[in-house]
Amino acid sequence: MAEDRDPGRGRPRRRGGRRVRSDPGRAWCGNAEPGDLQALRSILARLDALARSLLRRELLGQAPTGPIGPVRLELDVYPAAPSEEGDRAAALLAALRTRVQEIGDGVVALRPGRVYCFWCRSNACEHGRPDTPRQVFLGYDPTGRPRFTDFADLVLARGDPRIEGLYRDPPEPIAIYDGGKTLRSAQLPFFGGASAACNILGQVAIGYLPFAAPRPGERQVLSLTLQAIQARRRDGGMLLDLNILGLTPEGTLDQWLDSAFDGAVRAGIERARRCIREVGRRQRSHGDRETLEAAVEPFLNELARTLERFVRQAGRRTTHVRDRRRQGDRPTNMALEDARRVRAGALFWDDKHGTYIVVGPRGRTHVFNPDGRHVTSVVYSRDAFERKQKLKLWRELSREESAAFFRALPR
């Protein structure tokens, strides 16, 4: 007995009492020769390999942060022999390279604390961050490389009369807003000026902000660049987020944001980030640049005003802080003493920043590098400390790791 079903549906067939499952791929090939399907599979495999090779070159060694979807191409096939195969191959390669470049931009476009460089097609290159704590992002040059400048030079170039306030103690911060069109005005389209994969919709540059120096008599400050970034997700959707650029005199930017003004800076940033992300969720139809720039500008300026307010409040407390310094009550003065006397369960390792964390009395928290050198000190509230533990940002050291830390401390 034999049973045949429609082979176009790939259903099982019965012959001689035995079920035979047809090949679904072969079923759709109609009258194709057996080698035709294998030839097409070989061609597709080679195209996939070429796309992977192009992507590796575009990412300059950076690994994609997640799975990447298919790249769609338009391909013309000629039943009769075409006269210019070379031109067709060059056009197909150019189209494939363009699509892969767009994916490469989206894969690495958003990396916290760095700006995307269209020249290197990366934000892990040397151009992606400021060189000094006083620098802010100025915009792109014609070839798509990021430009940074000292914040005082930016204020001077804009002719802002408030520049004298930058040099007071504490400084009186100034915020300067620039739209995305201004930031990319010098950028050529070929070098990302017309990129749909990564756009800076607007930014606020603010400086100078006081940095708590661990040594008395020093005046350390920093500037920040607060950017609203638009990037394309791997599924083709749009993503809006807040990016913070800055270089701290000591420690990391994340550590300063967590501790500055008793954590209020971090709270203000997270509030602005939620608002900017919500703009992205509302604009699911891929709103034009001008619409998006207008939508995110109020949140950037509000965040800048929040930072300015914190600094003014800090200025009113300057006398009190200086009295504490004279009394030797600053947490930095207690760093080594607290480290040598740290109790069990109060010594941690920060995996993200690669530093030791010592929690002393009354919320005093000290950061040491792996060599035992003191980096910075802050005072955390009980809620802030419990939040760190809840999020597993700090890992308690084992007995052997604790012994290694004590050996690294200066004698």
> Could you tell me how far the N terminus lies from the C terminus, measured between alpha carbons in angstroms?
92 Å
What is the total tally of β strands? Answer: 14
User: Main sheet?
Assistant: 5 strands, antiparallel
Low-confidence stretches: 1-10, 318-329
State Rg: 29 Å
Number of domains: 3
Give me the number of helical elements. Answer: 12
Task: Briefly note the structural class of the backbone.
Answer: alpha+beta
C-alpha geometry: globular
Mean of residue pLDDT values: 78
Strand order of the largest sheet: 13-12-11-10-14
Helix content: 25-40%
Tell me the series of helices and strands, N- to C-terminal.
EEEHHHEEHEHEEEHHHHHEEEEHEH
What is the percentage of strand-forming residues? 15-25%
Question: Could you describe the 3D structure shown?
Answer:
It is a single chain. It is built from twelve helices and 14 strands. Residues 1-10 and 318-329 have low confidence and may be disordered. The protein is an alpha+beta fold and 411 residues long. It is 37% helix and 20% strand. The chain is globular and about 85 Å long. It folds into three domains: 40-104, no CATH class; 109-319, no CATH class; 331-408, no CATH class.
